[in-house]
Amino acid sequence: MENTPQKEISRCGWCGTDPLYQKYHDTEWGKPVKDDRVLFEFLILESAQAGLSWITILRKRPHYKAAFSAFDPLQVAQYNETDLQRLLQDKGIVRNRLKIQSAISNAKIFLEIQKNFGSFRQYLYSFLPGNKPIENRYESLSEVPAQTPLSNQIAKDLKKRGMKFFGPTTCYAFMQAVGMVNDHLVSCIFRKKN
């Protein structure tokens, strides 16, 4: 019996051949998130990623979940100096003092936004045209921007509220991750599965 080559799955090229990266791309990236706790998780992870590769953070994701109270913003907002020192010793996460401190202060801002808008998701979607995700139609990775006027606007508003490590580029990566924008390439079979 002949070996028939398996048909290659058409994905966005950024996820390469790493199984963890491909699983993330195929099952999570670009899918609209409705759960505020998941939005908080991505807020922490995307902020930690600043200056690093996303695969580095994906590999550390289980450690982040354990270190940051399963991404419960109520608990993280109450972290104190003891918690900060514990996190600085945790080899499973990025041990950058400023990023860790910002995760704690960003949790407080996240809760304040929830209180003022009903949910963090409602706050985010208030920036989107018609409160709906944006469907982009890029044919190649070179067309996909690192930031947009909208990510600039959201990042600026969050900065005004005191959020740190969440500039326009980090904000756009967050928007892609949580499905506020669909940037799966038109050739990607997972584009239609969102």
Describe it for me?
The chain is mainly alpha-helical. It has a single domain, classed as Endonuclease III, domain 1 (Orthogonal Bundle), CATH 1.10.340.30. Helix content is 51%, strand content 2%. The chain contains nine helices and two strands; from the N terminus they run αααααααβααβ. A two-stranded parallel ribbon has the order 1-2.
Entry summary:
Helices cover 51% and strands 2% of the residues. It has helices spanning 19-27, 36-49, 54-67, 73-76, 81-89, 97-117, 120-125, 149-160, 168-177, and strands at residues 134-135, 181-182. The longest helix has 21 residues, at 97-117.
How are the elements arranged and paired?
Layout: H1 19-27, H2 36-49, H3 54-67, H4 73-76, H5 81-89, H6 97-117, H7 120-125, E1 134-135, H8 149-160, H9 168-177, E2 181-182
Parallel strand pairs: 1-2
Strand elements, count: 2
Strand content: under 5%
Strand order of the largest sheet: 1-2
Number of DSSP helical runs: 9
Q: In terms of quaternary structure, what is this?
A: single chain
Rough shape? Answer: globular
CATH-assigned fold name: Endonuclease III, domain 1
Distance between the termini: 38 Å
SS content category: mainly alpha
The sequence of SSEs as H and E is HHHHHHHEHHE
**Amount of helix:** 40-55%
Search tags:
51% helix; single chain; Endonuclease III, domain 1; two-stranded parallel sheet; mainly alpha; 9 helices; globular; 194 residues
